[in-house]
């Protein structure tokens, strides 16, 4: 039995019992009273001395993606009360998501990255668990070994395929693509937001790959909004489509979906938990996230996207107005075409007239109270979006930005 003294020692090691210095937004410290009963809500970030901030940057993984909607949070809490069979849950949730989006099949993954890994694994192994055990070792197994992508589509997330042991073969042109296909070709990987960067666009890739019976995967991680994207690429003919759950969809940050042909989704599941002797075992998604991801998609489809857009536009315009009169500064509202498709305020300036660098401006915004994160940076530019703001925060961003830039342009 634990001694009374040990118990007291252990209890006093707990932050709330021991009396902990914590820091509020203004940086002032205050003491949480020892012996106080646990408050109804704890401010964990404050307790930990963690800076929270207004996110005027966007859906960055390092900034914890997006905020889950109330419906998603509710689903998370309510599903935490019961035990279920995880495969049965994935089956049913997958069916529901597929029917909502009008594709053959779907499964919840631990993010778009894991959708890429599991999809690749499935293409290699089919539904054979013995093959799944062998990944990432392909040599001498009879499994295919190469994935083709365009050099211009290179992104760091391509590593998610290499986890399965495949080698990436790079091409630039349609002709090179045709020549690169051989009996070791397992799959083609397409990065949606880079479509116009590459020389081979959606239709041409699909034409060549379908003619050679090469499965195609498209990475659309950050490409909703618009909502149509959720169905567009499976409709277009891609065999597998990967989305992040914790970006524009506002599901759990550590969830995502793999959508597509039944055959490939079933094969991907062979490398997914609860199965353990697989490359995907560390990509567990708990029951709460599985359901929350489904709810995120349901509520995303129901949203009034026009209203969201009007709000973002108003907010971005408000922030723009605060800096429009600054000599030597150019403020422009752009909308990216394929990913992060939201009104984006791009600011750039002549540093002889506005005497601050982009990086310094970011730091100034960060250092204020409340702290604000914006995107871009470097020598003389930054960019700002409003879709991750809570209502009203646009005014704080507008006044702080205007204040700093006016000060630096005097
Ligand atoms: C964010 C992103 C990923 C990774 O998505 P996660 O859901 O964080 O795993 C992959 N590809 C692209 C293009 C992305 O933007």
TrEMBL record:
Keywords, alphabetical: Pyridoxal phosphate, Transferase
Keyword Transmembrane helix: no
Xref: Gene3D superfamilies: Type I PLP-dependent aspartate aminotransferase-like (Major domain)
Annotated signal sequence range: none
InterPro entries in the record: PyrdxlP-dep_Trfase, PyrdxlP-dep_Trfase_major, SelA-like
SUPFAM superfamilies the record matches: PLP-dependent transferases
Cofactor dependence: pyridoxal 5'-phosphate
Molecular function per GO: L-seryl-tRNA(Sec) selenium transferase activity
Annotated positions of the N6-(pyridoxal phosphate)lysine modification: 247
Family named by the database record: Belongs to the SelA family.
Protein name in the entry: PLP-dependent transferase
């Amino acid at each position: 039995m634990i001694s009374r003294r040990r118990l007291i020692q252990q209890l006093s090691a707990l932050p709330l019992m021991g009396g902990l210095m914590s820091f509020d937004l203004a940086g002032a410290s205050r003491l949480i009273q020892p012996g106080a009963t646990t408050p109804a809500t704890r401010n964990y970030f404050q307790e930990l001395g963690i800076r929270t901030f207004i996110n005027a940057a966007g859906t960055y993984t390092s900034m914890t993606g997006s905020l889950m909607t109330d419906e998603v949070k509710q689903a998370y809490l309510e599903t935490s009360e019961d035990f279920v069979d995880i495969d049965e849950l994935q089956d049913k949730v997958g069916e529901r998501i597929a029917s909502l989006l009008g594709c053959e099949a779907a499964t919840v993954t631990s993010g778009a990255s894991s959708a890429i890994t599991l999809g690749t694994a499935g293409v290699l192994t089919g539904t054979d668990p013995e093959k799944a055990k062998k990944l990432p070792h392909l040599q001498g197994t009879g499994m295919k070994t190469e994935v083709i992508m365009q050099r211009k589509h290179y992104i760091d997330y391509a590593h998610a395929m290499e986890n399965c042991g495949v080698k990436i073969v790079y091409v630039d042109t349609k002709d090179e693509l045709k020549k690169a296909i051989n009996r070791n070709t397992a799959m083609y990987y397409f990065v949606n937001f880079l479509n116009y960067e590459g020389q081979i666009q959606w239709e041409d890739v699909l034409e060549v790959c379908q003619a050679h019976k090469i499965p195609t995967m498209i990475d659309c991680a950050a490409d909703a909004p618009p909502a149509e994207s959720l169905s567009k690429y499976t409709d277009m003919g891609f065999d597998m489509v990967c989305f992040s759950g914790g970006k524009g969809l506002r599901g759990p940050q550590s969830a995502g979906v793999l959508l597509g042909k039944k055959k490939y989704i079933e094969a991907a599941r062979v490398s997914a938990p609860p199965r353990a002797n697989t490359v995907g075992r560390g990509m567990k998604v708990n029951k709460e996230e599985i359901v929350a991801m489904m709810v995120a998609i349901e509520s995303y489809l129901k949203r009034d996207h026009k209203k969201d857009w009007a709000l973002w536009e108003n907010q971005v315009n408000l922030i723009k107005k605060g800096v429009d009169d600054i000599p030597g500064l150019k403020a422009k509202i752009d909308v990216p075409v394929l990913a992060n498709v939201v009104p984006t305020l791009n600011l750039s300036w002549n540093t002889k007239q506005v005497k601050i660098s982009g990086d310094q401006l970011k730091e100034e915004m960060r250092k204020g109270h409340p702290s604000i994160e914006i995107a871009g940076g470097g020598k003389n530019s930054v960019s700002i979006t409003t879709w991750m703001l809570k209502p009203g925060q646009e005014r704080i961003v507008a006044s702080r930005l205007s204040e700093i830039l006016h000060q630096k342009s005097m």
